[in-house]
UniProtKB/TrEMBL annotation:
Pfam families, per the entry: STAS_2 (PF13466)
Organism (species): Streptomyces aurantiacus
NCBIfam families hit by this protein: ant_ant_sig
Domain STAS: 1-107
InterPro entries associated with the record: Anti-sigma_ant, MlaB-like_STAS, STAS_dom, STAS_dom_sf
Protein name (database record): Anti-sigma factor antagonist
Single GO molecular function: anti-sigma factor antagonist activity
Domain of life: Bacteria
Length: 107
């Protein structure tokens, strides 16, 4: 897993899973705490995430809200869009461009 960027926009790549969750949480929480306005997470380079990784995203979402910021997801890969729809988190998280639920393949 790698994260690059600043306190306004970060690109997350690789795998966001139980092995990388602690490091990701530290970096993302620092970005929330050190910035202002929207925090954009570009997930276009993310290969996969598991339940722990999704928990990190939700924790950052909550922390951003407490700091008066909005977490915005950009470039969410299709397989991760399906997970957000299945868990109904697409209704809670701000996703740039939204998710075209009807265009996602059924699994």
């Amino acid at each position: 897993m790698h994260i690059r960027g600043d306190h306004a926009e970060l690109v997350v790549g690789g795998r966001l899973d139980v092995r990388s969750a602690a490091d990701a949480r530290t970096v993302l929480h620092s970005a929330v705490d050190d910035g202002a306005g929207d925090l954009v997470l570009d997930l276009s380079e993310l290969d996969s995430w598991d339940a722990t990784g999704l928990g990190v995203i939700m924790g950052v979402h909550r922390r951003a809200g407490r700091c008066g910021r909005t977490l915005v997801l950009r470039g969410v890969p299709p397989q991760m869009q399906r997970l957000l729809v299945a868990t109904r988190l697409h209704r809670i998280l701000a996703i740039e461009g939204g998710i075209g639920v009807e265009s996602l393949p059924r699994v």
